[in-house]
Design goal:
Alkaline Phosphatase, subunit A, nine-stranded mixed beta sheet, three-stranded antiparallel beta sheet, disordered N terminus
């Protein structure tokens, strides 16, 4: 049975000791921030099977029958079967999950909550820049800028520090003959030929197929391509939409989690040896209601789960100050209560991963309003 001692057993010192997006080729460390837009159901992704109230709340509301069997994460938690590759990383000590976590935001607007998630502030629109952008000046300032695999620069990377965005074009796709002719035109120009070749390679990696749609494996490989360059970006942001599961959650969430799982696996494969120096954080704007609604879904909630993966991660753990799911323990009588601040996770990972003073990160990036976590990254 889960109780709050789990938190103590998994590293109380971690939370009591104050302590991540790139910037520069002067470090071999890579950080990837995956934003899960729409509010992922953390109770379905990492199921608290050791809490007796969980079965009472969720019953048979879980993965679809053909999804497979949940993967045990110890006696108290189980992983959604769609996250099989991430589960394998967990077994190897290269992934961990932080449960009952949320930003300071306690309302139920996606837009406001995403703003708080990305700015690292305490209220929606209280900050005008992103927490990753504020982190950049603390890192070695050489190499290519931090990059977002997105149509526009997400709030997390907006600010005074240089950052860029890349996305496959949504315009009509040029046919192979036209591309070949353009390639011949640039063949004699050393600079343009290289740029053209890079663009074609990026287009392919992004999965910009004839329909103009990206695919998760292509997205992960593309991000890895930018990060693996000797003087390439050291921080990347990836956006995954579609987590707002008010109805028909079982099948939809299964597909979403497979997508996330594929992106993480593709990042690992694409980075190769650089995976050992990489941390990937996947977080969402808020959790969902503890009990399902009447349409086979869940509604906007509070506490959720954050996923951390990478060769630099001290994984194989579910880190949580578990609040319990009994009726009296629920936030507003309906949500998993949040016991950990997402900003503490962000600050702790950033400081440890890039060997920065944790209090400096807390002060410069999060206005000193968090106590950074520690013990999450290998020394």
């Amino acid at each position: 049975m889960i109780d709050r001692r789990l938190f103590l057993g998994l590293g109380a010192a971690t939370w009591l000791t104050p302590q991540l997006a790139l910037a520069a080729a002067a470090t071999d460390r890579r950080l990837v921030f995956i934003i899960l837009r729409g509010a992922m159901d953390g109770l379905a992704a990492v199921m608290p099977v050791g809490d007796p109230a969980y079965a009472a709340l969720r019953g048979n509301f879980g993965p679809p029958p053909d999804a497979g069997v949940p993967l045990p994460l110890g006696p108290d938690f189980a992983l959604h079967p769609a996250l099989a590759q991430t589960g394998a990383l967990y077994a190897r000590g290269e992934a961990l999950f932080v449960h009952a976590i949320a930003s300071p935001y306690r309302e139920r607007s996606h837009f406001d909550a995403q703003n708080v998630l990305e700015t690292g502030g305490t209220a929606a629109y209280a900050r005008k820049d992103g927490w990753l952008n504020r982190l950049l000046p603390l890192l070695p300032a050489t190499g290519e800028p931090a990059i977002a695999l997105a149509q526009t620069l997400p709030m997390a990377l907006r600010g005074t520090a240089t950052a860029t965005a890349f996305a496959p074009s949504q315009l009509a796709t040029a046919d192979d003959d036209l591309l070949a002719r353009a390639g011949m035109l640039y063949a004699a120009d050393p600079q343009l030929h290289r740029l053209w070749s890079d663009a074609l390679a990026a287009r392919t990696l992004a999965g910009a197929d004839a329909r103009g749609k990206a695919n998760p494996a292509g997205l992960g490989r593309l991000a890895a391509t930018f990060l693996a360059k000797p003087h390439g970006a050291r921080i990347a942001v990836i956006e995954l939409n579609g987590w707002d599961t008010h109805s028909g959650q079982a099948g939809r969430l299964n597909a979403q989690l497979r997508q996330l799982d594929t992106v993480i696996a593709a990042l690992k494969d694409g980075l190769g040896a650089d995976w050992a120096h990489t941390v990937v954080i996947a977080a969402t704007e808020f959790g969902r209601t503890a009990a399902p609604n009447g349409t086979g879904g869940t509604d906007h909630g509070t506490g959720g789960v954050a996923m951390v993966a990478g060769g630099a991660v001290k994984g194989g753990r579910v880190v949580t100050d578990w609040p319990g799911l009994a009726p009296a323990k629920l936030f507003d009588g309906r949500d998993l209560a949040a016991t950990t601040d997402l900003r503490a996770l962000f600050a702790g990972l950033a400081a440890e991963h890039f060997a920065l003073d944790p209090m400096r990160v807390a002060r410069r990036v999060f206005a000193g309003s968090v106590r950074p976590m520690s013990g999450l990254v290998r020394g």
